[in-house]
Amino acid sequence: MNPMTWSNTEKKIARQAFGTALSREEASLLADFKARAAAAATQQDMWAVYMFLAERDGYMGRKYEFRYSELISLFVLLRAEGWLDEADLAGLRDDKLTMIREGCARWQRDFERDA
Length: 115
Known about the structure:
Layout: H1 8-39, H2 43-63, H3 71-81, H4 94-114
Helix pairs in contact: 1-2, 3-4
């Protein structure tokens, strides 16, 4: 299988989409953190907030790794989780958009099957 190529324009779109999704998820994480911290009443609660952040830090670090070889899979995940809209990916070649749409459809079918 040939490695997927990205034009300079697509690279810019991909970087922008990646940054958009990261910003959206970080904003959600910040709101969640603030709610948890505000509700913390004991030292145990404080450490629970700390553990929550530590776990999320590791997850976000693994998830948001920018590698062109993995971007289609990442964009499928980010679309399926709601961090990206199709409009955020406008300008990518049709073959890439088709792979992302098909991946989202598979993800949704798997999610519904497991629910």
